[in-house]
What we know:
By secondary structure, the chain is of the alpha/beta class. It has a single domain, classed as Rossmann fold (3-Layer(aba) Sandwich), CATH 3.40.50. The strands form two sheets. It has a seven-stranded mixed β-sheet, with helices on both faces. The chain is globular. It binds S-adenosylmethionine. The site of S-adenosylmethionine has 23 residues, from helix 2 and strand 2.
Amino acid sequence: MQVEQVLRMNKGAGDTSYAMNSTVQNTIISVSKAATEEAIVKTLCSNCVDSMGIADLGCSSGPNTLLVISDILATVGATTRHLGRPCPEIRVYLNDLFTNDFNNIFASLPGFYRKLRQGGASKMGPCFIFGVPGSFYGPLFPANSLHFVHSSSSLHWLSQVPAGLEEEGRAVNKGKIYISEGSPRSVLEAYSRQFHNDFSAFLKSRSREMVTGGRMVLSLIGRDSSDPTTPHSCYQWELLAQALMSLASQGLIQEERVDSFDVPYYAPCMQELKSALEKEGSFVMEREEAREIDWDGGGLTGAASRGERVARTVRAVVESMLESQFGTHVMDRLFQAYARLVDRHLSHTSAKYINLTVSLVKQA
Ligand SMILES: C[S@@+](CC[C@H](N)C(=O)[O-])C[C@H]1O[C@@H](n2cnc3c(N)ncnc32)[C@H](O)[C@@H]1O
C-alpha cells in the first residue's frame, strides 16, 4: 500500500473532519512549543539572515496549521527585536501529501494575514506563504534554502506498509493491524526496519535543503520502552483491530481483508531516532523530550463519552485508509464499535500516547 494514495486527513470542517477533531495534535503542538521557541532563538542567534526559510512538514489543514505558523512568526519577530536586528523576509513553506486539503488552508490565508497585521506585523519583514505538495521522505526544497523545519504528529506515518508482513502470499499478522503482543518477531523487525529507512531518507533530504546551523523540531508519537508491544505504543490499534474483527464476525466485512491490512505507522523509541541520526550524521540532537498525552487530548468534556471522543480523533485521521480497504458503508458502525471498546478500556486504565519531541541542529 502506497501511503500517498490512501492517507488523507478528513477534509472540510464537518463533524468527522480533521479540522474539528485535532485536539490531540493541538495538545502536542502546545507541549512542544518551548522546544520550538528555543530552536528559533538559537537559529537566529547563530545565523544573521535577511531571508529566512521555514517549513512545516505534514501541515494538514484546519486550525493547527496556521497556529504553528503564527507561533513561529511571533518568536522570529520577538527574537530579532531583542537582538536589535531588522526582521528578515520570511518564506513559509507548508508541506503535505498531494491529496491534502491545501484549498482549505489557502482560503483561510486572508484572515490569517489580517490577524498578522492587527498583531503588529508591520514591524515584521514581509511574509510569503507557499504550499509544497509531496512526500517529506524525498526532496522537497532547493539546496540550502531552509533555516527552520517543524513537523508535528506526522513522522510516525511510514512511506509504506513494511515489506515482509506476508509469507508465501499469506498474512503473518492475522487479525491484527499493527504490532501486537502476539505478533511474530518478523513483524516487529519489518516495522522497525521500515521506520529506520524512512527516517534516514527524511534526514538525508533535509540535510541537503537546510543551511548549516539551521534547526529542526520534530514531534511524533513514539514509546518510552524498547519493547514495541507495550500498550502505550500499540493498544489504540489493538482495539481498532478488535472493532474490525467484530464487524467480520457479523459478516459485514471479510476476515481476510482484516488479516491483509496493516497500518503504515510506527511508534519508535528515542534510541531508534538516535541510531538513525548517528548513522546519517548531518544533525546533532540538542534537546529531547517524552511526554504522555491523553488519548482524547485532555480537552474539554462534552456530552460525548471519552470513547466517542477518542474514536472521532482516530476516525479523522485513518478513515480514508480504512475506507479503501473495507468500504465506506461500514465506517459509522466501525467507529461506534471502536468507541465502545475504548470506553470499556478507559473504565479500568488510563491510556496515554507517548509524544517524542527532538530538536536537531544541522552540522557543517
Ligand atoms: C495527524 S496530521 C498532523 C497535522 C498537523 N501537523 C497537526 O499537528 O495538526 C499528519 C499529517 O502528516 C501528513 N503526512 C503523512 N505522511 C507524509 C509524508 N510522507 N509527506 C508529507 N506529509 C505526510 C498527513 O497527510 C497528515 O496531514
